[in-house]
Amino acid sequence: MTCWSTDACIDVIECAAKGGTSQAGLCPGAANIQCCSCSTCMDTAACSANGSISYSGICSGPSNIQCCKSKSLPVIIPSEPVNTMLTDLADILRGAGLNVVEETGWKTRGHDVMSSVKGILVHHTAGPATGEYPSLLIVRDGRTDLPGPLSQLGLGRSGTWYVIAAGKSYHAGKTINDTIFGNANAIGIEAEGTGLPADNTGHENWPEVQWQSYVRGVKALQAAYGVPTSNVLGHKEAAVPAGRKIDPNFSMDEFRAALD
Ligand SMILES: [Zn+2]
């Protein structure tokens, strides 16, 4: 199978911004270049009459038939959750223009409600070297020694976000301050990556599209839940005893600088 049009093979983030949906495996090139299609193709005049905006390039047919997208992305009202499931995670990420896949049952998945959202912990999966998000089932269902979910969110190599759980997830272990960074109080993000080399400098070992999406998604979560950048830590920074974890294998100073 190939994409319906070679012109529709575009970056997944560009596709989401146009109101389209990306499908992997149909386009040549990098993992972030996927087949973009639109489920709301309509005449541009009819679209603007609805108060919406037309985007070209992802609908078949004459040039007046374009992808019609509502002007207003979901409006996220900042909140500070207390003892609740984070059922707005998908809308928060989608509202930032990111590609989002909702894993069936995520809104009720978790070991308990979240006590709060005071911190965000950045991880890598240390998973297989290839594939979009091969760690999905482990993150969702866990391992023999640790039941899933292992994090609320996953991030694929294409920059697509996987929303896996709305409740407490086992990603943090013991931390420097469990009231901020513990499982009950911090959102965990498991980004697909081998973690090699474990050099802790820059992000040159990560696909640029995945890195940019990581930054954009964390910024959206911070805005929605009022999490300061100082409370966005790498697992390697939050875990105790020091040296227990090495993830993520990029510079957290660079990551935090990109958030501000
Ligand atoms: Zn970790």
| Derived structural class | alpha/beta
Query: What is the highest CATH level, the class of the largest domain?
Result: Alpha Beta
How many domain units?
2
The value of Rg in angstroms is 19 Å
Q: What fraction, in percent, of the residue positions are helical?
A: 10-25%
SSE pattern: EHEEEHEEHEEHEEEEHEHEHH
What integer is the average pLDDT? 93
Task: Going across the biggest sheet, name each strand in turn.
Answer: 7-12-11-13-8-14
The CATH superfamily title of the largest domain: Peptidoglycan recognition protein-like
CATH topology of the largest domain: Lysozyme-like
Unreliable segments (pLDDT under 50, ≥5 consecutive)?
A: none
Strand content: 15-25%
Protein name: N-acetylmuramoyl-L-alanine amidase domain-containing protein
InterPro entries: Amidase/PGRP_sf (IPR036505), Amidase_domain (IPR002502)
GO molecular function: N-acetylmuramoyl-L-alanine amidase activity
Domain N-acetylmuramoyl-L-alanine amidase: 105-249
Observed structural traits:
N-acetylmuramoyl-L-alanine amidase domain-containing protein; 3-stranded antiparallel sheet; Amidase_domain; binds zinc ion; Lysozyme-like; alpha/beta; N-acetylmuramoyl-L-alanine amidase activity; 8 helices; 6-stranded mixed sheet; 260 residues; globular
Note the topology.
Elements: E1 9-11, H1 12-17, E2 21-23, E3 33-37, E4 41-43, H2 44-49, E5 52-55, E6 65-70, H3 89-95, E7 100-102, E8 119-124, H4 136-141, E9 142-143, E10 146-147, E11 153-155, E12 161-163, H5 178-181, E13 186-191, H6 208-225, E14 232-234, H7 235-238, H8 252-259
Parallel strand pairs: 7-12, 8-13, 8-14, 11-13
Antiparallel strand pairs: 1-3, 2-3, 4-6, 5-6, 9-10, 11-12
Helix pairs in contact: 3-6, 6-8
Bound molecules: zinc ion.
Zinc ion (ZN) binds next to loops.
